[in-house]
């Protein structure tokens, strides 16, 4: 293999591997450095894909246990085969990571196996061997934030990585942090039979999400059996053979109490990962949160070194990293890459799902923007009734003067799919009226989107 490339991408997560493929499609000679034994980064190996596999399997189990009875489908002798469920998850992960390997071969992207270190602008050292590149793209991703006093062993005190690997359903799972990871993985283990308590520092779950949606989300999860201890912080954890003893106290100060758990999941956020990359030596600047600073073209302060994905500012989402990967590849090939940060959807894959795009009501209020709201509940949607999934609603926020869509938030069945239409609408600068006038097939869940758009002007038909 030649030691000289147009582009070397460090990290093969959704940001890095997509950047490498797109750059190769555009005729550049590309290598991607990855130290993990498989390609695909956090997302494919220990993030999006394994968590969605377990969410799907646990949902099937829960349906078989409860929901199917309502449909007149009776199952005798239902059992959980957790080993099989975990094996299936691993098969799904392997199929995806091998898929990226295939795409690298197809596009002639060289996989440099090992740990990359940038030793000078234009030079990347991979386990002692130097490679030259006209441009370097940092796509090294993120890692979970540690909690002082709570030492992760990935057995009894776990991050998401350990929580995806449990070989036994815990009696009591305590989740520290009521964010996306805590609620998705808390849901998995609750469905499989664990008691789940979520300890959250703030007085609400999923900070950043539209308040009204977050409130509805919490009530639905509580109805499903998740317990919430809001406004509480964990100060220490001690591990014994029979479990973990957590000391918690009110975030605002007050009396301590202890909580016993079989497993503790620490999910209080993720932070950029740049360890061992040599950034200090080449002078690549980080911001006050350890993120690589980039300009509008994803270039760092060192010419020829770029960065994308979780390691830079913005939502830590796979599709955000992918779009940045494409943008950088196109910029490096002399084209004009661009990402519209106002139109990046976010989805929580619980059931019901929660999805949003654009601004929340709180952001609009804080920005002094006059807006109108249109809402429509799934309980008034024929298809949701037929499915037996009537929890949740669609909420659309439109500019009061121009009617332009400013934000959309959905909690309900298949919210993650429904948000695509509203993301498209925002990307195209559509008004609520535009969405309301589009013909939506009947009976589909998407009619709730149309009705919410009609409701912006008080014209919903089915409520
Ligand atoms: P990463 O995917 O983190 O990849 C970085 C890669 O770089 C890693 O493979 C690492 O080994 C490699 N690397 C680092 N340093 C070096 C080095 N010096 N040399 C060589 N290789 C190196 N996002 C969603 O959009 N949807 C979801 O459903 C979702 N679910 C998630 C579930 C969980 C449990 C977690 C933890 C995350 C989830 N995310 C989800 C977030 C998503 O995984 C990240 O946003 C995404 O993986 C970021 O992509 P990236 O390319 O920036 O970095
Ligand atoms: P998060 O930022 O979503 O949530 C962390 C939660 O922990 C917050 O509610 C925060 O207030 C709370 N917290 C912080 N410190 C605390 C403390 N000391 N004690 C108790 N609570 C505390 O982070 P999370 O869930 O770890 O996920 C990390 C990121 O991974 C997400 O922000 C998201 O970008 C990505 N992700 C995306 C998914 C998706 O798109 N479906 C799924 C899983 C992860």
UniProtKB/TrEMBL annotation:
Active site: 442 (proton acceptor)
GO molecular function: dihydrolipoyl dehydrogenase (NADH) activity; flavin adenine dinucleotide binding
EC nos: 1.8.1.4
Gene Ontology BP, a term: cellular respiration
Residues that, per the record, bind NAD(+): 177-184, 200, 269
Positions with a binding annotation for FAD: 52, 116, 140-142, 310, 316-319
Group of enzyme by EC: oxidoreductase
Cofactor requirement: FAD
Keyword annotations from UniProtKB, A to Z: Disulfide bond, FAD, Flavoprotein, NAD, Nucleotide-binding, Oxidoreductase, Redox-active center
InterPro entries: Class-I_Pyr_Nuc-Dis_Oxidored, FAD/NAD-bd_sf, FAD/NAD-binding_dom, FAD/NAD-linked_Rdtase_dimer_sf, Lipoamide_DH, Pyr_nuc-diS_OxRdtase, Pyr_nucl-diS_OxRdtase_dimer, Pyr_OxRdtase_I_AS
Record-annotated Pyridine nucleotide-disulphide oxidoreductase dimerisation domain positions: 344-453
Domain FAD/NAD(P)-binding: 5-325
Annotated GO CC locations: cytoplasm; transferase complex
Coiled-coil residues: none
Pfam families: Pyr_redox_2, Pyr_redox_dim
Cysteines engaged in disulfide bonds, as pairs: 43-48
Membership in a protein family: Belongs to the class-I pyridine nucleotide-disulfide oxidoreductase family.
Comment field (misc): The active site is a redox-active disulfide bond.
Protein's recorded name: Dihydrolipoyl dehydrogenase
Organism of this sequence: Rhodopila globiformis
